[in-house]
Amino acid sequence: MSASARSTLLVAGSANLDFVVRASHVPAPGETVLGREFATFPGGKGANQAVACARAGGVDTRMLLALGDDPFASTIENSLTDAGVTLQVVRSAQPTGTAFICLSDDAENAITVAPGANGALRGDELSSLQDVSHLLLQLETPIEAVTAFALSAREAGVRVVLNAAPARALPTELLRSVDVLIVNEGELAAITGHHGSVAECLEQLDVPCVVVTLGARGCCARQDAQFFLQSGFKVQAVDTTAAGDTFCGALVAALNLGDALPAALRYACAASALACTRLGAQSSIPQRIEVETMLRSNDRHAPIANRALAAYCGLV
């Protein structure tokens, strides 16, 4: 099948039900904080990124995930299908994954995940990859399964994108199978074992394309020997819970649609910024038309902003 006929994105990864409590600040070790509002939201890195591919990216999206046989599973399935994601569900005897999130008034968060059914993925569950252009993976499912998925996709001619979160050491065979690696600064340092500048850390990685998210600053990417910078969009943030996942899904969707890397980075930064203006994980992810409207009304290629970002990354 030709590359042009490969139009589907496949996400293989985690899905959780998020239990979110708002508080004045995230508690320090040993501290008890009196919270306020409480709500539950469908979440999990894999599921969030699948929703971002389908909703913010506007592309045909499938997801392979593992869920328990419980009411939490139905909530997650409904959220994904409502976003337009086609599901391949592995049913587990373990309970559906959950996450416990404290969200502070300054939009920071602290998250504890109970993986549950997410651990049921083994790595041999991929269905046909004939129409798949990109496989998007994360690290909230067993690393053996993630590695097996990446190897199978590479063999089938599918581009492999790995969001290496949560941070951990990566098997060499997994890294060798990755076309695009997406990390934040902490994850970049954990993978490389280097604590210098972003540019210095990127020199340690033998991956064709690496994208480093930098929070409100924006992002920095290296594709082969060339660097690209994209400054962030200014918004009034209320919840950053799914900002990184929105970035990942929107970026891969833009690449799937044929955007060059600089344009894909700009699109992903805009989608991520919009997600920060709303509560919840999947509930915060914007529609494609909202991202396009934001891009039309903002010019974020200001030379001054990019010069400051270049200096922060150690590129000047």
UniProtKB/TrEMBL annotation:
<feature type="binding site">
    <location>
        <position position="284"/>
    </location>
    <ligand>
        <name>K(+)</name>
    </ligand>
</feature>
<feature type="domain" description="Carbohydrate kinase PfkB">
    <location>
        <begin position="9"/>
        <end position="287"/>
    </location>
</feature>
<comment type="similarity">
    <text>Belongs to the carbohydrate kinase PfkB family. Ribokinase subfamily.</text>
</comment>
<feature type="binding site">
    <location>
        <position position="278"/>
    </location>
    <ligand>
        <name>K(+)</name>
    </ligand>
</feature>
<dbReference type="InterPro" id="IPR011877">
    <property type="entry name" value="Ribokinase"/>
</dbReference>
<comment type="similarity">
    <text>Belongs to the carbohydrate kinase pfkB family.</text>
</comment>
<feature type="binding site">
    <location>
        <position position="275"/>
    </location>
    <ligand>
        <name>K(+)</name>
    </ligand>
</feature>
<keyword id="KW-0067">ATP-binding</keyword>
<feature type="binding site">
    <location>
        <position position="245"/>
    </location>
    <ligand>
        <name>substrate</name>
    </ligand>
</feature>
<keyword id="KW-0808">Transferase</keyword>
<comment type="function">
    <text>Catalyzes the phosphorylation of ribose at O-5 in a reaction requiring ATP and magnesium. The resulting D-ribose-5-phosphate can then be used either for sythesis of nucleotides, histidine, and tryptophan, or as a component of the pentose phosphate pathway.</text>
</comment>
<keyword id="KW-0963">Cytoplasm</keyword>
<keyword id="KW-0119">Carbohydrate metabolism</keyword>
<feature type="binding site">
    <location>
        <position position="140"/>
    </location>
    <ligand>
        <name>substrate</name>
    </ligand>
</feature>
<keyword id="KW-0479">Metal-binding</keyword>
<dbReference type="InterPro" id="IPR029056">
    <property type="entry name" value="Ribokinase-like"/>
</dbReference>
<feature type="binding site">
    <location>
        <begin position="213"/>
        <end position="218"/>
    </location>
    <ligand>
        <name>ATP</name>
    </ligand>
</feature>
<dbReference type="InterPro" id="IPR011611">
    <property type="entry name" value="PfkB_dom"/>
</dbReference>
<dbReference type="InterPro" id="IPR002173">
    <property type="entry name" value="Carboh/pur_kinase_PfkB_CS"/>
</dbReference>
<keyword id="KW-0630">Potassium</keyword>
<keyword id="KW-0460">Magnesium</keyword>
<feature type="binding site">
    <location>
        <position position="184"/>
    </location>
    <ligand>
        <name>ATP</name>
    </ligand>
</feature>
<feature type="binding site">
    <location>
        <begin position="16"/>
        <end position="18"/>
    </location>
    <ligand>
        <name>substrate</name>
    </ligand>
</feature>
<comment type="subunit">
    <text>Homodimer.</text>
</comment>
<comment type="pathway">
    <text>Carbohydrate metabolism; D-ribose degradation; D-ribose 5-phosphate from beta-D-ribopyranose: step 2/2.</text>
</comment>
<feature type="binding site">
    <location>
        <position position="241"/>
    </location>
    <ligand>
        <name>K(+)</name>
    </ligand>
</feature>
<dbReference type="InterPro" id="IPR002139">
    <property type="entry name" value="Ribo/fructo_kinase"/>
</dbReference>
<keyword id="KW-0418">Kinase</keyword>
<feature type="binding site">
    <location>
        <begin position="244"/>
        <end position="245"/>
    </location>
    <ligand>
        <name>ATP</name>
    </ligand>
</feature>
<dbReference type="GO" id="GO:0004747">
    <property type="term" value="F:ribokinase activity"/>
</dbReference>
<feature type="binding site">
    <location>
        <position position="239"/>
    </location>
    <ligand>
        <name>K(+)</name>
    </ligand>
</feature>
<keyword id="KW-0547">Nucleotide-binding</keyword>
<feature type="binding site">
    <location>
        <position position="280"/>
    </location>
    <ligand>
        <name>K(+)</name>
    </ligand>
</feature>
<protein>
    <recommendedName>
        <fullName>Ribokinase</fullName>
        <ecNumber>2.7.1.15</ecNumber>
    </recommendedName>
</protein>
<feature type="active site" description="Proton acceptor">
    <location>
        <position position="245"/>
    </location>
</feature>
<feature type="binding site">
    <location>
        <begin position="44"/>
        <end position="48"/>
    </location>
    <ligand>
        <name>substrate</name>
    </ligand>
</feature>
<dbReference type="Pfam" id="PF00294">
    <property type="entry name" value="PfkB"/>
</dbReference>
